[in-house]
Design goal:
α2 runs antiparallel to α3, α2 packs antiparallel against α5 and α5 crosses α6. It is built from six helices and no strands.
């Protein structure tokens, strides 16, 4: 299986996993963030599909961090954290680990791709996977201690990336 086919499989699996997580949560803010993550994975799949067909593909960075920052702020303002399931922390850890592996995969494969356009796209997708990992780290912190995290959050830590 070539790098693009493998990447397409990774993205499709990621989309399904985030959809699964979104279905398991009752918190509307988290459901929204997980939906955005699933949407990013679907977008990556479509871009890879275009690359495979030798079509021109552009990756426009998604506003997932700024949108998530707004959702976290809304959760704090509405004190809407009672239904953040700490029991799902392992599922979020798994999602973060998937993003780490995806980032490493894209970085490794980008270096070995002969096509400069495909190489550039793999590097760009790797950057998005890194932003997903960053977001999931903050989700893990929030789910672990929601009241403290949301009450004390200045949300500046999401601007760092």
């Amino acid at each position: 299986m070539n790098a693009i086919d493998l990447a397409m499989e990774i993205e499709k699996d990621g989309e399904k996993y985030y959809q699964h997580l979104a279905e398991k949560t009752t918190n509307s803010g988290m459901k929204n963030i997980l939906g955005m993550l699933a949407g990013d994975e679907a977008k990556h799949f479509q871009i890879l599909q275009k690359l495979k067909e030798s079509a021109k593909a552009d990756l426009l960075s998604t506003p997932i961090l700024s949108a998530s920052k707004n959702i976290f702020r809304q959760l704090r303002d509405e004190k809407n954290w009672t239904d953040l399931p700490a029991s799902q922390i392992d599922l979020y850890r798994k999602a973060r680990d998937i993003e780490i592996r995806s980032f490493n995969f894209y970085m490794e494969k980008a270096r070995s791709l002969p096509d400069p356009a495909a190489q550039k796209m793999f590097f760009l997708i790797a950057e998005e996977e890194k932003r997903h990992e960053f977001l999931l780290d903050h989700i893990l912190q929030m789910v672990s201690r929601p009241q403290t995290w949301l009450e004390n959050a200045e949300f500046n830590h999401l601007d760092k990336y």
